[in-house]
Specification:
This protein is mainly β. The protein has one domain. Helices cover 10% and strands 50% of the residues. The protein has 3 helices and 13 strands. Strands 1, 2, 3, 4, 5, 6, 7, 8, 9, 10, 11, 12 and 13 form a 13-stranded mixed sheet that branches. Strand 2 and strand 3 form a beta hairpin. The protein is globular and about 50 Å long. The two termini are 15 Å apart.
Amino acid sequence: MAAIEPWKMKGELILSCSCQVFCPCVISLGQHPPTEGHCQTWGGIRIEKGNYGDLDLSDINIALMIEIPSLMSRGNWTVGAYVDERADAYQLRALTKILSGRAKGTTHLFSILVGKFVGVFQEKVTYDIDGDIRRLKVPKLIDGEIQPIPGKKAGEPVVIKNTQYWISDEVTVARANRSKFRAFGRNWDFKGLSAELCEIDWSGP
């Protein structure tokens, strides 16, 4: 069995889900059910700087599908991922270890809570930043745009800080302007529903 290399991943993550604004899982840490009783989510990761051992993972985009049947903390998640087609075979192998939880560290939670990991596939994954708007595109599969919800102070969005949320301790509350997902046998449209934006700083093992 190959040894697990030290890894790091810094960048940004967006999620768009089936909850009404705002998803209760962030604050309750999965102890409160999603607003619809289940969670259907697509997400995007923009790796600004990352590595797996000596292997550079910087500037790679990832798209995720997560489906949770009830309470997040009860597990039995279904997860799939798309890695940018620009990643080479070595980067794809490393990211598969990280995303499946086998590389331990921050994403080790996946190895505990995921009941079905449908795999990692390569497609063109585009993650665009346009002011406060974030767009994720995987041709014919994902077409999403999220935007933070404005706060009382002009120019500042609503932000949840100092959380114990595994993704990030600071979460910007957002809403989906556009949110279509057609992959892995799913056909979702979460326009107008809950979304979030986080800076990530993940590592392992």
